[in-house]
């Protein structure tokens, strides 16, 4: 397989520019694979922020670790605050049944429709042998409800195959586990040796991007450092001036 060493776009880009991303439709699917620290969640967040402002977008933050100041955080999967914000972030209750929460959330998303969902750490809620009904419903039937989906996972060898078979775009960073590398190689039509050879040449935080429809594979530079810094550094909070009577000056 010939690999283009450029962004998946015909538009020129410079190393210091915003990364050029595919044009995501509301009901498109994306899968991102990569080990801890590879850059997969940063890329997912860049995609999240690149989508139209008046799309409903939902982050499922399994580990409560994503910094997204423009998203409204909520904790009840049965009460999604659609009327309060377009950008939403769900953090599950670690002391409650995770599958029940994920199932309820996805069912509600499906019947609301018109939403793009980013599931971070997908390996925590799906395996090759079991996936919550709501998630499976969105993966297999979500297009008719205009529900798009992005899955991030460090372990592509042990997730629902529907995450991959329903995706328009597959993105892979460096992978340590041999089984994971074999699985992704098969997904993008390479032998394990070919895949290992290409992965070994990637620089830090670079990745391979596979367009399923066109069967095209690209080697893509890392997300620019200044973009990463902006994502990882929460905005400074302006100090509040409080009057003696306790009121806050605006």
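Q: What amino acid sequence fits the structure above?
A:
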């Amino acid at each position: 397989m010939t690999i283009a060493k450029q962004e998946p776009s015909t538009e020129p880009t410079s190393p210091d520019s915003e990364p050029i991303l595919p044009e995501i439709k509301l009901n498109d699917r994306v899968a991102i694979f990569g080990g801890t620290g590879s850059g997969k969640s940063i890329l997912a967040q860049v995609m999240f922020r690149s989508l139209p402002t008046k799309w409903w977008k939902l982050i499922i933050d399994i580990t409560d670790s994503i910094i997204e100041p423009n998203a409204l955080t909520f904790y009840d999967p049965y009460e999604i605050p659609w009327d309060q914000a377009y950008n939403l972030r769900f953090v599950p209750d670690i002391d409650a049944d995770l599958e029940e929460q994920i199932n309820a959330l996805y069912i509600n998303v499906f019947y609301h429709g018109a939403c793009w969902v980013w599931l971070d750490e997908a390996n925590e809620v799906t395996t090759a042998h079991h996936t919550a009904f709501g998630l499976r419903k969105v993966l297999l039937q979500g297009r008719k409800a205009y529900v798009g989906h992005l899955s991030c996972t460090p372990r592509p060898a042990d997730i629902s195959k529907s995450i991959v078979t329903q995706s328009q775009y597959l993105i892979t960073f460096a992978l340590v586990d041999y089984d994971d590398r074999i699985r992704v190689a098969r997904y993008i039509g390479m032998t394990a040796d070919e895949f290992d050879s290409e992965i070994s040449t990637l620089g830090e935080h670079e990745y391979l991007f596979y367009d399923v429809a066109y069967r095209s594979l690209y080697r893509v530079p890392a997300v620019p450092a200044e973009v990463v810094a902006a994502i990882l550094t929460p905005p400074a909070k302006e100090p509040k001036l409080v009057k003696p009577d306790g009121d806050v000056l605006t």
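Q: And what stands out in the fold?
A: DSSP finds seven helices and twelve strands in the chain.
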